[in-house]
Structures are given as structure tokens and as C-alpha cells.
Amino acid sequence: MKVAIIGTGYVGLPTGVGLAELGHEVVCIDKNEEKIKKLQKGQLTLFEVGIEELFQKNIASGRLTFSTRLQEHIPGADLVILAVGTPPHPVTKEADLSYIYAAVEEIAPLLKDYTVLATKSTVPVGTGDKIEAILAKTNKDAQVDVVSLPEFLREGFAIHDFFHPDRIVIGTKSQKAIKLLTELYRPLGEDIPLLIVSRRSSETIKYASNAFLAVKIHYINEMANFCEKTGADISEVARGMGSDSRIGPKFLQAGPGYGGSCFPKDTNAMAYMGRQAGINLSLIEATIYGNDARKQQISTRIAEAVKDLPHPKVALLGLAFKGGTDDCRESPAIQIIQNLIGIDADLVAFDPKAMDQAKILLGDKIKYADSAYEAVKGADAVAILTEWTDFKALDWDKIKSLMRTPHLLDLRNLLDKSTMIAKGFRYQKIG
Fold it and tell me: Is 262 known to be catalytic?
């Protein structure tokens, strides 16, 4: 099957690599000429666990190509996937659909034979209807089914999730489109979990899912605050809660709050859609407010740890919004560091993969180290802001010997408390 994917970001590129590995002929299209030139040369433009080998393999086979030219690839495609960004509006926080609609207007005149146009970007309810209206106005003769095909790829685990999906949601009532998309995913196996729903239900599922997970994260962080005041241990509480099959253990890790390209954007967009529909989505609204407050709470905790020291040094381990990715969009670590910039302290940061992305956001307002050991040298406090397994494997005896004051703030509950105390650290965890 010939597939054209519009967009080469954290959704488009892993999807393209995955579909090529399934045997399809895939072209990923982007207007960014510099990015496309790198991809054509076999240079990945993002970090994702497990993508490198499949990326190189499918380029070599010719099943995966890259281009800036829609007119060369859209007319012959069986399936066109929209995977462009839908960033939040700076004021209302609603999803900005300008990139989606601009892409559709460019694609519309190029559609010839029957084509499925699938929206994989996260878009508000009713977007498919508006896409159909653009197509009808621009190319009334187009034989096209507009389908919602939301992505559920976790950053850092996108390749794994592509090949082991919990579900594949297809939003359409067109039997022809259902048949084509069933064939698209058939190489995954006979038991692929296809869920066929209406387009508007499909558009809602992604938002509803992410908002629910965000609520779960906010809830466990509130419970962590409660544990700190009462003497309970949030790790034990979360383990007890997660053992209940109705709750489950995932997203019950207390920390500095949620971030990334999805949860902040999607919760805000869901809240906006609720207000537009006249529905008070109170849990989501409270979660958004609480998550913003959470990052300020953590910033204050770090500042308090060194407030009585003359011009202290703070080592900050982790810049990406979570381990396994270089993505710093809405990263709690970045926002916490931005809150700390005004305090009287030297701030030195290190991340195994996200240094370049972080420098774009933070510039020269802080210092950067080439390793965790360099970052902690002479530090009065070290704060773990991202749950990289690399940090768990560090030589913590060496780190203690390098620090001026062995104060460790484990803000991801990554390490064992008793072990760190035995090593001589003043150890603080979440909850």
C-alpha cells in the first residue's frame, strides 16, 4: 500500500518507520527542507528508543523515503495521514488547527483516485467535518473518505507501542475505508485490537484518554502531599492502590507533575471544548490548575534546600519531560528550572539526550555539564528531575564524594531511600 504521511515529528516519523516495517511504501513529507535533507541522508531528527535500526533498514530497502513535494506523492497514495502539529493557542489554550487546514487545502487539489485521508494529529471534535467541507469546496470531485485515526504512541516507547498497540481506533462509517485500514494493519497479526467507532467518538477518545491519565497523575501527587504531612509513604500507598485491578499501577508515580507534548495541550484543549459545549469539566480544570501549582511547589522545595547557604550550587539531573525521549516541550524540569533562575545559586544541568533541546529553551541562563559527575562537582544539592534509568545506575558513592554538601532531592523517587541514607546523603523523596 502507498502511504503519504504529512509531518515528520514525534508522531509522523515513528508511524512512517512502523508502516514501512510492515511492508508498505511510505513517504514522509515535510516543508522543513533542512529536516528532510537530514532524513534523506539517514540522519534521525529525534531520539526514540528502538527507532534507529528500523529507520536505517527501511531506508535501505526503499520502503521509506522523504520529500518536501506534495504534488509528487499525494496523487498516487492510497492513504494520506495528517501528522502535523496542533499546538495550543497562547491565550485560549484551544488546539490551533491552522497547520491541519493549511495541509488539507494543499492536498485537496492533488487527490485523484479513491483516497483515505486520515487525521492522526490530535484534533477537536468536529475537525473531520470541517476537513470534509474544505475538500468539497476545493475539489468537489475528490473520491475521499475522511477518517479519524488517533495515535496512542508514548514518547520514548513509540516503536514498541506501534507494534504492540492496546487498541487501534478507526473513526469512520465507510466500509471501504475500514477495509483499507484493516489491510494496513493486518501484518501486525490476526488479533490486532481494532475499534471501529464514529468519527466524532474517535476524535474524543484521544482527548478523554489523555485527560484521564493526567487526572490520575494529579491525584497521586495530591496523595503524596498528604503522605508527607501524615507520615505515610506514597510509594507504598501507590503500590497498594495499583494492586487493585480496577485502578492499575500505571500513572501512579508521584513526581513533579505531568508534561510533554500531549497531556498539557490535550487537557487544556479538552477543558476549552467543555466550556464551548457548556459543560463544566471540573476534574480536568482542577487537574490543570493543580499541575501548574505542582511545579511551583517543587521549585520552592529545591530553593528551600539551599536557602541558608552562601551562593550555593544546585545540580539538576534531567531536562526532558520524561526518560526515554529528548522532548522538552512542557517539561516539568524546564519549568522548574525557569522558576529557580531568579534565586541566588549556580544552576548546572545535565541530561543524557535532551541537552540540545533544552538549550533552545533555557539559553545561557544556566550552565550545562557534559556528564552527571561534572554537574554535581562542588554542588550543595542535586535534584533528579527526570526518571532516566541512567541516573539510577550512577556511582552514588562517587557523587557524594564530589559534592560539597550531600543533599539529594529525588523528585522522581528513582532511588532507594535507605541505601542513599546509608551512603551519607541527606535524602528527600516525593511523598
Answer: yes
